[in-house]
């Protein structure tokens, strides 16, 4: 074989080798799996806005007064003229409540155990509630000295004759003292001769809805009140 023929054979062999390699790499690229696309990411910027959360619906306080019957004469003991300064908390007691009933006022815990509303032998009536506080039983309430259905008694407050702003006719007031303290008078109070101001928080029967003629009652309002008493020097008669 001459050199020319040998050179042709070598050229053919090289071409075949390159063709085989090219086919191999092409086949390899087709068999590789497609690369997974990266997951897009999001970032909040100052221009990103969200709708505001829905506003909470506030429950409206009930203005209805408990009781099955129509309201009768109300006997209200809370009057500034009697030294009452502020009502701190209140609850209603109705005649079908199961007793004893637990009450919690501003961290104070007591139980209502019994309700006694009775006409007095001659005239008037007494209204007293037995409560248990600090493992001791106490009575809170008042009595009315006369027939409250008489025309000169106000229908809005059976404890007032209406002749004066704070003309109270209910007596025998009983309350449970919870806390007591004193403070010195201000300059204005000193000018009026006040030497001490006494405070007391007390549990008392604030209001009663009661029909004297039928003897039925609708509710009793039990409250924790703040009593204030501005004291003057004692006088010797």
How would you describe this protein?
Strands 1, 2, 3, 4, 5, 6, 7, 8 and 9 form a 9-stranded antiparallel sheet that branches. This protein has a domain at 73-231. The protein has helices at 3-31, 187-191; strands at residues 73-76, 84-94, 101-105, 108-119, 125-133, 136-144, 171-183, 196-211, 216-231. The model is unreliable at 33-64 (pLDDT under 50). It is mainly beta and 237 residues long. It is built from 2 helices and 9 strands; from the N terminus they run αβββββββαββ.
Estimate percent helicity.
10-25%
Helix/sheet category: mainly beta
Number of helices in the DSSP assignment: 2
What's the overall geometry? elongated
Average the pLDDT over all residues and give the rounded result.
75
Total beta strand runs: 9
The percentage of residues in β strands lies in: 35-45%
Ends distance: 161 Å
Low-confidence stretches: 33-64
Rg is 45 Å
Largest sheet: 9 strands, antiparallel
Helix and strand sequence? HEEEEEEEHEE
Would you summarize the structure shown here?
The chain has helices at 3-31, 187-191; strands spanning 73-76, 84-94, 101-105, 108-119, 125-133, 136-144, 171-183, 196-211, 216-231. The protein has 237 residues and is mainly beta.
Write the layout of secondary structure elements.
Elements: H1 3-31, E1 73-76, E2 84-94, E3 101-105, E4 108-119, E5 125-133, E6 136-144, E7 171-183, H2 187-191, E8 196-211, E9 216-231
Antiparallel strand pairs: 1-8, 2-9, 3-4, 4-5, 5-6, 6-7, 7-8, 8-9
List keywords for this structure.
14% helix, 237 residues, 2 helices, elongated, 9 strands, mainly beta
